[in-house]
């Protein structure tokens, strides 16, 4: 089995994110927080191959079930989530209000052994999004047959 991870988010920028981090590493409030942090955009993922299915897990704490969008098209699985939060910060002379968007997107090309016509079970519990992808009938292993030699 092989899964291929697509990561196209840096193709539009001719320089790498470390150069951007260095450039914007000042105390300027416009470029604070984790806006350019690679790790904040990509959740960790586990993939298990079981007898009848693949189980894919994403570590995505802090989201609600309604924040996720999971699509499958042409053997490409897209998992994304978006959450909007507001932060207010007050001081004696000013008031600062920020909108913070927490989002991620992972794209995986699935192996041909995945049955893309079958239903996909998606469960979000305790910060883990778990997807169960059924295998095609023809790829399920048949039990080993022992032949007696006489």
UniProtKB/TrEMBL annotation:
Q: Which Pfam families match?
A: HSP20 (PF00011)
Question: Which domain of life does the UniProt lineage start with?
Answer: Bacteria
UniProt cross-references to Gene3D superfamilies, sorted A to Z: 2.60.40.790
Domain SHSP: from-to ranges: 36-150
Cited InterPro entries: A-crystallin/Hsp20_dom, HSP20-like_chaperone, Small_HSP
Could you say which protein family the record assigns here? Belongs to the small heat shock protein (HSP20) family.
Q: What is this protein called?
A: HSP20 family protein
Q: Where does this protein come from, organism-wise?
A: Winogradskyella wandonensis
Q: What is the lineage of its organism?
A: Bacteria, Pseudomonadati, Bacteroidota, Flavobacteriia, Flavobacteriales
């Amino acid at each position: 089995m092989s899964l291929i991870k697509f990561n196209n988010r840096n193709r539009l920028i001719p320089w790498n994110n470390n150069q951007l981090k260095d450039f914007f590493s000042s105390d300027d409030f416009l470029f604070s927080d984790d806006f350019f942090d690679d790790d904040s955009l990509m959740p960790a993922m586990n993939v298990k191959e079981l007898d009848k299915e693949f189980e894919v897990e994403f570590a995505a704490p802090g989201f609600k079930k309604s924040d996720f969008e999971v699509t499958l098209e042409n053997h490409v699985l897209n998992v994304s989530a978006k959450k909007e939060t507001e932060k207010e910060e007050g001081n004696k002379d000013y008031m600062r209000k920020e909108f913070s968007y927490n989002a991620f997107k992972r794209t995986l090309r699935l192996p041909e052994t995945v049955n893309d016509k079958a239903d996909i079970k998606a469960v979000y519990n305790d910060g883990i999004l778990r997807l169960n992808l059924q295998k095609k009938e023809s790829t399920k292993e048949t039990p080993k047959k022992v032949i007696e030699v006489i």
